[in-house]
Write a structure and sequence with these properties.
The chain has 105 residues and is α/β, with parallel strands linked by helices. Helices cover 35% and strands 18% of the residues. A 3-stranded parallel beta sheet has the order 1-4-5, with helices on both faces.
Length: 105
């Protein structure tokens, strides 16, 4: 779906460890992280990715089948560039979110 919207998908990971390795190897501009990762937390993965960014311009976007309101407090304190519900996820939404994050934090 994202590729159809003009977003180049360079990797997919099934676990936080795979995600960390893939991000290190592929160095994507945006990492889309599901909040629910089975036993693992997407919020923790977002924090790990942020710690390992080392000054890169990489952005983490959290996604979920739940609404923003369900996780509002956790989203607010996360290092993620933003949150998108899975039903609204599209290339257009990701690009708009990144344009809004071009400003320094």
């Amino acid at each position: 779906m994202l590729e159809h919207d003009g977003v180049e998908v360079v990797g997919v990971a099934s676990t936080p460890e795979e995600a960390m390795a893939s991000v290190s190897q592929l160095d994507p501009d945006v990492v889309i992280v599901d909040i629910a990762l089975g036993r693992d937390s997407g919020f923790e993965l977002a924090r790990r990715l942020d710690r390992e960014a080392h000054g890169t311009s990489r952005h983490v976007v959290l996604i979920s089948t739940h609404t923003r309101e369900d996780f509002a407090e956790l989203i607010a304190v996360s290092p993620a560039a933003g949150f998108v519900s899975k039903s609204e996820l599209s290339g257009r939404v990701i690009r708009a979110l990144m344009r809004g994050r071009d400003q320094p934090r």
